[in-house]
Design brief:
alpha+beta; 2 domains; 3-stranded antiparallel β-sheet; 3-stranded mixed β-sheet
Length: 145
């Protein structure tokens, strides 16, 4: 299988420093990062590891859910996936991801709402990014249109 690469260049300390994350393999984007913006409610145009994790997780989950639906006899027409990834204090010190909430709305032929919820829970456990996030409490909310 493939290997993908990203790179971060950081200057300064945690509170006064900043950096840029580059999606090196694809070359499609470079994003500014900063700890003060990471910890703030308003990101002010600066991304964070949590936002990048949410992006990776929603795309991985959508792919896995599409495959899971097809394997169960459904036909996925459209899936819209969003995720809230929360950073919070770690009781052991520092910070940690305190939770992730995946929300998916789907249009699927030949599927009941119950089968959709079951497939979404399965995808939430089995997509590769979910497996990488085993230390994070992941919640899946699924709605079939």
């Amino acid at each position: 299988m493939s290997t993908r690469t990203a790179r971060t260049a950081w200057n300064g300390g945690l509170e006064d420093g900043s950096g840029q994350v580059e999606l090196t393999s694809s070359g499609v984007a470079t994003f500014d990062v900063s700890f003060p913006r990471r910890a703030a409610d308003d990101a002010q145009g600066v991304t964070s590891p949590e936002e990048l994790i949410a992006a990776a997780h929603t795309s991985c989950f959508a792919m896995q859910l599409s495959a899971t639906i097809a394997a169960a006899g459904g036909t996925p027409i459209a899936l819209e996936v969003s995720e809230d990834v929360t950073l919070g204090p770690d009781p052991a010190g520092g910070f940690r991801l305190t939770g992730a909430v995946l929300k998916v709305r789907g249009e699927v032929e030949n599927f009941t709402p119950e089968k959709f919820e079951e497939a979404a829970r399965d995808a939430g456990k089995n997509c590769p990014i979910s497996k990488a996030l085993t230390g994070v409490d992941i919640t899946v909310e699924a709605t079939l249109d």
